[in-house]
């Protein structure tokens, strides 16, 4: 009976060690992937200065080109704000600015014109409700654009690193508990 119990413990310990090592390896791979994708975007982001923006005007435009391609017309929102003592164009995120510099906000779905128009109207109404809001600007003197929301801010980086850290900690904890269990069983067998 004692030998069967020891064999079962060894199998269970081996499986637990494999689980812990697999968790640590997955965490390391995830850290590598995040280090090559999210971290460079965070480091390249120049939109670090948080300031207050005051709404000047909003305008809904119908666009016919997106990324240089002819597409069906879609509405987009153009927003002018006053930030850090100067006039600026507000963009929703970094990607909005890269997709089309003529639009401050591009609706998510461009398939249905009426739904896209309703989405743009809703965003415009929210801007008119809140005339003053937080925005992000760059420290460059000649920059005339600001962001409403940063895609690659510190919160995104911390959120991206949370799960791999949790996985790494859990894996190391499993390995440590198995090793403590093995050393305690050796001490108990010696007595």
Descriptive report:
- The chain is α+β, with helices and mostly antiparallel strands and 191 residues long.
- The chain is 54% helix and 25% strand.
- It is built from 4 helices and 5 strands; from the N terminus they run H-E-E-E-H-H-E-E-H.
- It has helices at residues 2-44, 94-99, 113-129, 154-190; strands spanning 49-66, 69-83, 86-91, 132-137, 145-147.
- It has a 5-stranded mixed beta sheet with strand order 4-1-2-3-5.
- Strand 1 and strand 2 form a beta hairpin.
- Helix 1 (2-44) packs antiparallel against helix 4.
- The mean pLDDT is 82.
Descriptive tags:
191 residues; elongated; single chain; 25% strand; alpha+beta; 5 strands
- So what's the overall shape? elongated
Computed structural class: alpha+beta
Mean pLDDT: 82
How far apart, in Å, are the first and last alpha carbons? 19 Å
Strand content: 25-35%
Number of extended strands: 5
Oligomer: single chain
Write down the secondary-structure element order.
Answer: HEEEHHEEH
Number of discrete helical segments:
4
Q: What's the Cα radius of gyration?
A: 27 Å
- Residue stretches low in confidence (pLDDT < 50, at least 5 long) are none
What is the helical fraction, as a range of percent? 40-55%
> What is the makeup of the main sheet?
5 strands, mixed
Give the strand line-up of the largest sheet. 4-1-2-3-5
List the helices and strands and how they pair.
Layout lengths: L1 H43 L4 E18 L2 E15 L2 E6 L2 H6 L13 H17 L2 E6 L7 E3 L6 H37 L1
Parallel strand pairs: 3-5
Antiparallel strand pairs: 1-2, 1-4, 2-3
């Amino acid at each position: 009976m004692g030998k069967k119990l020891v064999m079962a413990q060894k199998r269970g310990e081996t499986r637990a060690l494999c689980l812990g090592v697999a968790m640590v390896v997955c965490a390391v791979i995830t850290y590598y992937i995040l280090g090559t994708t999210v971290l460079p975007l965070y480091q390249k982001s120049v939109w670090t200065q948080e300031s207050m923006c005051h709404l000047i005007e909003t305008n809904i435009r119908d666009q016919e080109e997106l990324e240089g391609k002819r597409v069906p017309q879609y509405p987009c929102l153009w927003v002018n704000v006053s930030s850090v003592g100067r006039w600026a164009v507000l963009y929703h995120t970094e990607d909005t600015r890269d997709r089309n510099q003529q639009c401050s906000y591009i609706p998510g779905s461009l398939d249905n014109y009426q739904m896209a128009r309703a989405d743009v109207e809703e965003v415009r109404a929210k801007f008119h409700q809140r005339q003053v809001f937080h925005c992000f600007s760059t420290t460059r003197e000649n920059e005339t654009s600001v962001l409403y929301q940063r895609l690659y801010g510190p919160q995104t980086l911390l959120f991206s690193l949370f799960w791999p850290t949790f996985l790494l900690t859990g894996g190391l904890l499993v390995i440590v508990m198995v090793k403590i269990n093995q050393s305690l069983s050796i001490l108990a067998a010696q007595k």
